[in-house]
């Protein structure tokens, strides 16, 4: 991969991007590729110190300790074979995908109250691994997935939604642990939204429509708020119909939070997946 100094805005997302979990009241120290880095209260890098200067292949080399130019979201910087994405909160662990494929992307803050139908845009969301945004169209199971898959005929409304994978079955990635126990959230397929809940709100309820067709209890899903599990679907059976779900966010009024839809899969059977449409906070 070609290296570049952090002129930053023009850098393409071409390598491994780290995922979101590092949120809290104060900064912490990542334990992954850059263990001496510090992050701010939102999980964004403040400084990055190279534990091994071979990671820094910029020409000329970057300083031993790179200081990010501002607080909060910012551009990307290439460190050797790793692109650190400054536009999204960073994980405190290892890169999300060792294959070097693009993971994640810019995460736009949306302020409640709002309704997202995903027709004209992805709603400011950011998806890793299998999560894709686009047009939902029926497909015939087989080939890459189980013939028992029951894909959606269309989005809940309009033509576009988020899904794992659009118009095909999800990847049998082999990252599922015991059902209802998420041993390593970083390697999930993750769809994230950053949401501001103004202090003026008296209550806040997240609503979304979802279509679930996955191989329970081996493949399963959960929703997290700032890294904490808020809802799981890991028992019973999946419902291959569009249904509405709700989650009370009132405890987070006055804050900016990250809501993340985590999906896990085994290496065996894969169905059509998890689809999300018509997300709102009121």
Any descriptors?
single chain, 282 residues, mainly beta, Jelly Rolls, six-stranded mixed beta sheet, six-stranded antiparallel beta sheet, 0% helix, disordered N terminus
Mean pLDDT: 73
Number of structurally distinct domains: 2
Q: Can you identify the CATH class of the largest domain?
A: Mainly Beta
If you compute it from the alpha carbons, what radius of gyration comes out, rounded to the nearest whole angstrom?
19 Å
Number of E-type strands? 17
In quaternary terms, these chains amount to single chain
Order of helices and strands: EEEEEEEEEEEEEEEEE
Q: Uncertain segments of ≥5 residues (pLDDT<50)?
A: 1-33, 69-75, 88-104
Examine the secondary-structure arrangement and name the CATH architecture of the largest domain.
Answer: Sandwich
What is the rounded distance between the termini? 44 Å
Beta-strand content estimate: 25-35%
Q: Characterize the largest beta sheet: strand count, sense, and whether it forms a barrel.
A: 6 strands, mixed
Instruction: Briefly note the CATH topology name of the largest domain.
Output: Jelly Rolls
Structure class: mainly beta
Helix content: under 10%
